[in-house]
Design a protein that fits this description.
heterotrimer, A alpha/beta (about 425), B mainly alpha (about 270), C mainly alpha (about 300), B: about 270 residues, mainly alpha, MetI-like fold, 14 helices, globular, C: about 300 residues, 2 domains, transmembrane (chain B)
């Protein structure tokens, strides 16, 4: 072997060794999240920006699936101790993990962080259970009512439609079905779980009382809301496609095959890029209450991660809620601004000016409410999908189903000890 | 060949194609663009395969499937063959009871052990590892049973001659029994390999890390995340599906006879 | 090269060093160890867990007696799952067996055409179930699927195959039949080929028509194979999981929530480990009964060994 070759091998080994040391000095934070497609790309940008500012921290972000998938994978990971360091958790479903001591108490970090005063109250409070702060908000949302102007116009509904009550929505959806049904266009997308919860609140009730923890699944007003929602499907105004798979309803709306969709404001940018100027956005109905749930998720840190990793993870969590990150996120997705200073940044200001309707969710904040986040909520939400399918597909009557569901949820809450 | 036979063959091929048409069509679809699929044209492309491999990591999943199924097959055959040899050739206390325990596993579906095995591997720190995928699949009561039956059919005189020459039991196994049992071992190898290749529920619970996904998991996930914004990108999903079935299809044409023999004998278990 | 390797093993492997009495035990030890750890001990763990309350997270697993069994047997989802599984078995098993016997009687001849068809029928048996589920999800998707394209070519309307509870179960039964048919056919062919040709000749001499020969000779003589396939396919029906998990996740409205899928859901979606284990124990008991039935049939030597 020639001397020259020897030298070059030695040199490359040296380079390898040096880069290995550099890599060792970095703290790696594994981060599970629920964003793909356009929202995923916005998150990637935020992670890249963070890593540029913090070269000593490496964020290993992994798209796990939707909120349910994350909850399931996290819970399965506990006995194996193979969880991530940081994880996106939906605002009603982290109580289970906080309660079990799986999530680190972020209160000491948060109290020392100037971010605490920059966050809007509505956003800050979603991470608190009792006196402790378990997640820091990242993507906050309320449901809004999207409609396809083109579809509604062709069904004879010109201008800004009146969709303020359940009856008004039914009427509009029926006109769409009657005029455009032959083309395979349906009036409304079957409401997803977030919208269903919102509609129950708009009807003056809730699923679980956020203050007392009382289970309201069999409250007459809850039943009334479910009766109406199920009627959308049973009367054919909404396709059953969206009942078996929530995303199907959204995808059909994006494809221009549906007149009305009630869904998270986090779908704003995706809908706008799919439908362009045909997209209209209105607040959720008030039937009669104008009340919308605050949804979305925050980032929690695992109590089992090492201290230095937790520190690094918090750096990221804090950055992700900073004005710079939040402005990018808001503009790219339509999720609510959570930081008081984000709206002033050019990227957010541009979005507000150029994207009509992106502010509908912001304007509905005055009557937005936090929801229960007791440990039983996770179970309740997982089970609600099955109950909804049974009712919407006409397999079981609403009153019977919800009464049984309420009883089961109470039993489960008792088992969990809350 | 008589004309009538030719006609029948053509008819048989046609019937076979109709029967397999969903799968054949899915392979065909995997070579067209999503655009042309939805607009009704046909625009040939290899792009779906490039996306499946480049963006969705299917080359890695293919490697994982080959590795896991290969290891399970080798280890499974090794423990099944040695045990079968002992059960067939040695007279020892408790033999019938132990053999009964092996055969009884045929009646115990793996689903029942799902939660406990998950906990065992979790405690051993073996979830999200290749070992976690391989270890629970190694014992195969059917292979042990089948090979024992086969070995019992081999004349004992052959072993005895080898022992006369001073061979040890392991040497007898390796030099006499294994060469003669090669067709049976091969059939069982295929049987184990296919079973593991298509295994789904265990990898589903045992693996969270995408780097360790097998093809089955990768495909199920690709389908469930609904690739393509808005309309599902069926041609891409079908390319992934084709990657998942093609190795088995190739193998099938090579070894159909062995497979059928293994399965038919299985019916006599 | 292999001999070399064995030589190495020979030097280190303790088999020969010990008393010859130990040899068979050492030979069976690896297999038995795997079986013990991954099959037998888990059965006892399942029974133990079925009397406890645990969700993977709490540090302790309190003993709750028969609570889990009571909750399971009192739940709508368990009985729904039992009935869905039973319907699946009752519809799919006779369908499979009747189709398979008819096809096998035709394909038992050793002709090129029957070899081709046997190959085609057999292919789905060894094809990945996930792939099959994905392909058929497309076939039965409402807007762009093959099935509805076929219907509209006939001038019929679209069917919501996987959104309608009754249709969805039917679709899964059809897919399962499609996948398993090849196996049944091959077993039937082996059984049919074992029927002595003289019996057919005798029946033919008596002037029996084809259908009568089939009904009077083939069907009774093939009964042992039919029993065998019956039990095997019923057991299989009790274990269907993959197509459900990929295609319907038990929906719509629980219409395809068969037992193993309910087990998976209870354990790994709802994380009710106690109730999931109770279900595993019940499923185990059910399958043992079926398996004993099978071994009685096979044990009584009524099956033809080819």
């Amino acid at each position: 072997m020639s001397r020259k070759l020897h030298t070059s091998i030695a040199a490359s080994l040296l380079v390898l060794a040096v880069s290995a040391t550099a890599a060792q000095a970095q703290t790696t934070v594994t981060f599970w999240h629920s964003f793909n497609n356009a929202n995923g790309r916005a998150l990637d940008e935020i992670v890249a920006n963070f890593e540029a500012v913090h070269p000593e921290i490496n964020i290993e972000a992994e798209y796990v699936g939707n909120y349910n998938d994350i909850v399931a994978r996290l819970q399965a990971a506990i006995p194996a101790n193979r969880g991530p360091d940081a994880v996106i958790l939906e605002v009603t479903r982290y109580g289970l993990f906080a309660d079990a001591g799986v999530l680190a108490d972020l209160t000491p970090y948060f109290d020392a962080d100037p971010l605490k005063d920059e966050l809007y109250d509505y956003a800050r409070q979603i991470g608190v259970i009792g006196e402790k702060n378990f997640i820091v908000p990242f993507n906050s949302s309320t449901p809004v009512l999207y409609y396809n102007k083109d579809v509604l116009a062709r069904a004879g509904i010109e201008g800004e439609p009146d969709l303020k009550t359940f009856d008004a929505i039914t009427t509009a959806a029926r006109s769409v079905n009657e005029t455009l049904g032959a083309e395979g266009i349906t009036g409304i997308a079957a409401p997803g779980q977030f919208a269903r919860w919102g509609l129950v609140m708009a009807n003056g009730s809730d699923l679980i009382d956020p203050m007392s923890g009382e289970i309201l699944l069999d409250d007459p007003k809850t039943l009334e809301a479910y009766e109406w929602m199920a009627s959308l499907v049973t009367e054919g105004l909404a396709s059953a496609d969206g009942v078996t798979e929530e995303d199907n309803g959204r995808d059909a709306f994006l494809a221009g095959k549906v007149g009305i969709m009630m869904n998270s404001t986090g779908n704003y940018v995706g809908s706008r890029s799919a439908l362009g100027d045909k997209l209209g956005v209105l607040p959720m109905p008030c039937n009669p209450d104008c009340a919308v749930p605050i949804g979305g998720a925050g980032i929690g840190i695992m109590a089992t991660s090492q201290q230095d990793v937790q520190d690094a993870a918090y750096e990221f969590v804090s950055y992700a809620a900073s004005p710079e990150a939040n402005a990018i996120w808001f503009a790219a997705t339509g999720y609510l601004p959570i930081n008081k200073n984000s709206a002033e940044l050019p990227v957010a200001a541009d979005a507000l000016a150029s994207q009509p309707g992106i502010d509908v969710a912001i304007n509905s904040l005055p009557h937005a409410h936090g929801r229960a986040r007791t440990p039983v909520v996770t179970w309740m939400r997982t089970t609600e999908y099955d109950m909804w399918q049974a009712m919407a597909l006409g397999q079981r009557p609403v009153a019977e189903t919800m009464t049984q569901f309420a009883a089961d949820t109470r039993a489960e809450a008792a088992r969990l000890g809350n | 060949m008589k004309l009538k036979d030719k006609g029948l063959s053509a008819l048989a091929i046609a019937a076979g194609i109709v029967f397999l048409s969903p799968v054949l069509y899915s392979i065909w679809m995997s070579f067209q663009t999503a655009q042309s699929y939805y607009t009704g044209g046909f625009e040939p492309t290899l792009g779906n395969y490039a996306t499946a491999i480049g963006q969705y990591n299917f080359a890695r999943y293919l490697f994982n499937s080959l590795l896991v199924s290969g290891l399970v097959t080798i280890a499974g055959l090794a423990v099944a063959t040695t045990a079968a040899f002992a059960f067939a050739r040695f007279d020892f206390k408790g033999r019938d009871l132990l053999f009964g325990l092996v055969v009884a596993t045929l009646m115990i579906p793996s689903h029942i052990t799902l939660i406990p095995n998950y906990l065992t591997l979790a405690r051993a720190g073996l979830l999200d590892t290749y070992a976690g995928l391989v270890l629970p699949a190694i014992s195969n009561g059917f292979a042990a049973f089948f090979l024992r039956q086969y070995i019992r059919g081999i004349p004992k005189a052959l072993d005895e001659a080898a022992y006369m020459d001073g061979a040890t039991p392991l040497q007898v196994l390796w030099r006499v029994i294994v060469p003669i049992s090669r067709p049976a071992i091969f059939s069982m190898g295929l049987y184990i390999f296919l079973g593991e290749w298509n295994n789904y529920i265990w990898p589903l619970v045992a693996v969270g890390k995408q780097d360790l996904y097998t093809l089955q998991l990768g495909l199920a996930r690709l389908y469930s995340i609904n690739p393509g914004e808005g309309l599902i990108d069926w041609p891409l999903v079908m390319a992934a599906s084709t990657i998942t079935i093609l190795p088995v299809l190739f193998g099938f044409f090579l070894v159909e006879r062995h497979l059928v023999r293994g399965i038919t004998m299985g019916a006599v278990k | 090269m292999f001999d070399q390797a064995v030589g190495d093993v020979h030097c280190r492997f303790p088999v020969e060093a010990m008393s010859p009495k130990l040899t068979p035990y050492l030979l069976v030890a690896p297999l038995l160890a795997f079986i013990a750890v991954f099959t037998y001990i888990p059965i006892f763990t399942s029974i133990d867990l079925s009397f406890r309350s645990w969700n993977f997270m709490s540090p302790d697993m309190p003993f709750v007696g028969l609570d889990n069994y009571a909750r399971l047997l009192g739940s709508q989802s368990f009985w729904n799952s039992m009935s869905v599984t039973t319907i699946f078995a009752v519809v799919s098993v006779p369908l499979r067996l009747a189709l398979a016997l008819a096809i096998a009687s035709y394909l038992k001849r050793e002709a090129a055409s029957s070899r081709v068809l046997r190959g085609a029928l057999f292919l789905p048996t060894i094809t990945s179930t996930v792939s099959i589920a994905v392909v058929f999800s497309w076939v039965f998707s409402t807007d762009y699927g093959l099935a509805n394209a076929f219907l509209s070519a006939l001038g019929l309307g679209k069917m919501p195959w996987l959104q309608d509870p009754t249709l969805a179960l039917l679709v899964l039964i059809l897919i399962n039949t499609w996948k398993q048919l090849g196996y049944d056919v091959i077993i039937y062919i082996a059984g049919l080929q074992a029927v002595p040709q003289e019996l057919y000749d005798a029946a033919a001499i008596d002037g029996g028509k084809r259908w009568q020969v089939f009904r009077r000779v083939t069907v009774p003589l093939i009964m042992p194979t039919t029993y065998f396939l019956l039990v095997v396919s019923v057991i299989e029906a009790f274990q269907v999981f993959t197509i459900i998990n990929v295609m319907t996740r038990g929906g719509p409205a629980g219409a395809t929530d068969m037992l193993v899928h309910l087990l998976y859901r209870t354990g790994f979606v709802l994380f009710d480990i106690g109730t999931g284990s109770a279900l595993a124990v019940i499923l185990f008991a059910l399958l043992i009964v079926l398996a004993l039935l099978k071994s009685r049939i096979v044990g009584s030597k009524v099956h033809y060994e080819a």
